[in-house]
Design brief:
Layout (H helix, E strand, L loop, with lengths): L1 H7 L7 H8 L3 H15 L3 E4 L3 E4 L8 H6 L4 E8 L2 H10 L6 E8 L18 E9 L9 H15 L5 E4 L3 E4 L2 E12 L5 E9 L17 H5 L5 H22 L5 H6 L7 E6 L2 E10 L5 E5 L2 E5 L4 E5 L4
């Protein structure tokens, strides 16, 4: 089925006879595979007598040889996974040595922060997880998710999305709509040798509204009007990640703090910080050297950090 999809990914018409010849199967077998593409992968196909078959929209499939020919680490490409972060965890438990990355055409149980589902339709977005070894304990992770955000920001802007900015702690927005998110997970002893899994989800060529998404969203294609080559995107992401991760390792987050604050969309805004059942109203002052958010609360500076925190704009901002 994936071989057939590769033949159709250009979005042009292909006759059933030509597709059957390329696949070495009958036209009826081609028709059955086309039905599977529609039912299982939810890829609408147009059928026109005398012309053949084409996808409703072109797709950009991930290609392992392309991803691995010019990247700073190896990439493992999958058609379907529960989640790329979960696959990295399994590979680490099997003794696979980092750094390495896992990407998938779709996820059946993609995860975001605070246990949220990350909607992962087939061949439309980038689901990317990188495994890194951390020596010297989890303190080396201070500000790491914000540094990853800077790398993703540089990638998106290099593709012409100049309105994209950061939202503390792990989101990227374009015109107020979410376009990418980051999820870091720790494996091992946080006081000694451990591994960090850097999970990145980028909305790339997704265009249709999905009822499962419970917040405003956009994609690179919606913002630019252009189909994005996901292989180019993944390779560019790997190079930018290496650049920022190496600088973070050498200099710490403090050296990147000003760059992050300059790209923070809510800098100086009135916000509501949600921590479980607790709500804190304040004005965003910036972040500290560990990546925690600094707020002015009733005229007093307070610092907040933690994986369960959520920042929202106040209605009066």
């Amino acid at each position: 089925m994936l071989t057939l999809l590769k033949l159709l990914q250009d979005g042009r018409f292909h006759s059933g006879e030509a597709l059957g010849a390329a696949l070495g199967v009958s036209r009826s077998a081609v028709w059955k595979q086309l039905q599977h593409l529609e039912s299982e992968l939810h890829l609408p196909i147009h059928k026109v007598r005398g012309k053949g078959y084409r996808l409703e929209r072109p797709v950009s499939l991930l290609e392992s040889p392309l991803l691995n020919q010019d990247s700073p680490w190896s990439h493992r490409v999958h058609e379907t996974l529960d989640s790329t972060n979960a696959e990295v965890m399994r590979l680490l438990s099997e003794g696979v040595l980092p750094p390495f990355a896992v990407v998938s055409e779709r996820q059946t149980a993609g995860r975001g922060r605070r246990g949220r589902q990350w909607i992962s339709p087939f061949a439309q977005n980038l689901y990317y997880s990188l495994a890194m070894r951390i020596d010297g304990g989890a303190r080396q992770l201070d500000g790491l998710s914000l540094v990853v955000g800077l790398a993703v920001l540089k990638v998106l802007r290099s593709f012409g999305l100049i309105e994209v900015g950061l939202k503390w702690p792990n989101d990227l927005l374009s015109r107020g709509r979410k376009i990418a998110g980051i999820l870091l997970e720790l494996v091992g002893d946080p006081a000694d040798l451990c591994h960090v899994i850097i999970g990145i989800g980028i909305n790339v060529n997704m265009q249709n509204a999905l009822e499962e998404i419970d917040q405003p969203w956009t994609s690179m294609q919606l913002e630019s009007g252009l189909l994005v080559d996901r292989n180019d995107l993944a390779i560019t992401l790997a190079k930018c990640l290496r650049e920022y991760l190496e600088r973070h390792d050498r200099e710490g987050f403090g050296a990147l703090k000003s760059e992050w604050e300059a790209a923070h969309l809510w800098q100086g805004c009135a916000v509501n910080l949600v921590a479980g059942a607790q709500y804190v109203d304040g004005i965003v002052l910036g972040v500290d050297a560990a990546g925690a958010i600094r707020l002015s609360v009733a005229g007093t500076e307070r610092v907040f950090s933690g994986g369960e925190l959520s920042l929202r704009l106040r209605d009066d901002s």
